[in-house]
Amino acid sequence: MKAALRTLVALSALAALTACGERLQTAGGSKHGTPSYAGPQSPFTAPGWKVDDKTSWEQHLRSRQQYGQNEYTRTH
Questions:
Q1: What is the mean pLDDT of the chain?
Q2: Which residue has the higher pLDDT, 5 or 65?
Q3: What is the DSSP secondary-structure string of 6-70?
């Protein structure tokens, strides 16, 4: 009886520890070898942004962070 109880406790502890593991989050990331500013090569891009222009890409990220996604700026 004690051996079965120990086995049950060990298996439940193992199952609990397995559930705490973290999965990899790299399944849907960008392809290797292409920089982020290369863009999707589609017509659905932000107006004024030029594909493969790193400076333009960084400027759009800065302005988006400052004006578009900054909740304090949007509400005041």
A1: 75
A2: 5
A3: HHHHHHHHHHHHHHT------TT-PPTTS-GGG---SS-S-TTPPTT-HHHHHHHHHHIIIIIS-
